[in-house]
UniProtKB/TrEMBL annotation:
This protein's record includes keyword Transcription regulation: no
Protein name listed in UniProt: Methyltransferase domain-containing protein
Single biological process term from Gene Ontology: methylation
Molecular function as annotated in GO: methyltransferase activity
Domain Methyltransferase: 53-146
Gene3D superfamilies assigned to the protein according to its UniProt record, in alphabetical order: Vaccinia Virus protein VP39
Keywords: Methyltransferase, S-adenosyl-L-methionine, Transferase
InterPro entries in the cross-refs: Methyltransf_25, SAM-dependent_MTases_sf
Origin species: Micromonospora narathiwatensis
Segments passing through the bilayer: none
Length: 221
């Protein structure tokens, strides 16, 4: 992070995209709960720590949880506001040495490296996003023996008053197919939908549906 609070960009972000997400985060002092996403925690709990890539990390609940369990995390987001909150939270938790913060507009650039875990949690956007291309890049970033975990919203939350008539949520099978993985090189460890209880923006309690894809790259022979 520079002295002016701007994160290095590789090589650029779309100004309108960055402004949209910064304004969303600036509406409140904290947008997300700060807790790790439930599926991520369940999947990762039994795994030995390694190198992780957190795509669309937001304010860093997942990144900090992973770092606290010994993972070395590269946390990526387009919002400088969100990344600033992550850095501050990591410092408070004495975990800054385990988290590398990087600003990327995933429509333009993707972080380098290979990772034991690549996590794409709710990488869905009201803005234009080449989601399938981003997820394929995520798969390419998985090291041999490593895993790609994709979790997406499966339907609007139960408290949603309105939904776009053309809104459509990809099924777990469609998400997996879009990854276009070589079946000889990958093993599907989890594929399906889970329901959980969530809290809406006005304090409503309701049901959320998550679509989950967990794949593991086979070890090289």
């Amino acid at each position: 992070m520079t002295e002016h609070g701007a994160y290095p960009v590789e090589p650029a972000v779309d100004a309108a995209t960055a402004r949209f997400w910064d304004e969303l985060y600036q509406e409140r002092d904290q947008v997300w709960s700060g807790r790790a996403n439930a599926v991520l925690a369940q999947v990762v709990a039994p795994l030995p720590p390694g190198a992780a890539l957190d795509l669309g990390c937001g304010e860093g609940g997942d990144a900090i949880w992973l770092a606290g369990r010994g993972w070395q995390v590269t946390a990526v987001d387009v919002s400088a506001t969100a990344l600033g909150r992550l850095s501050a939270a990591a410092a408070r938790a004495d975990l800054a040495s385990r988290i590398t913060v990087a600003r990327h507009d995933l429509t333009r650039t993707f972080p380098a490296g290979r990772y034991d875990l690549v996590s794409a949690q709710f990488l869905q956007s009201p803005l234009e996003l080449p989601r399938e291309a981003v997820l394929r890049a995520a798969a390419r970033a998985v090291a041999p023996g490593g895993r790609l975990l994709v979790v997406e919203h499966g339907e609007p939350p139960s408290w949603a008053r309105e939904s776009h008539p053309h809104a459509r949520f990809a099924s777990p099978e469609e998400i997996l197919a879009a990854l276009d993985l070589d079946p000889d090189g990958w093993h599907t460890e989890r594929l399906g939908a889970v329901r959980r209880t969530g809290t809406g923006p006005d304090g409503e309690t309701g049901t959320l549906v998550d679509h989950v894809v967990l794949v593991r790259r086979r070890e090289q022979r």
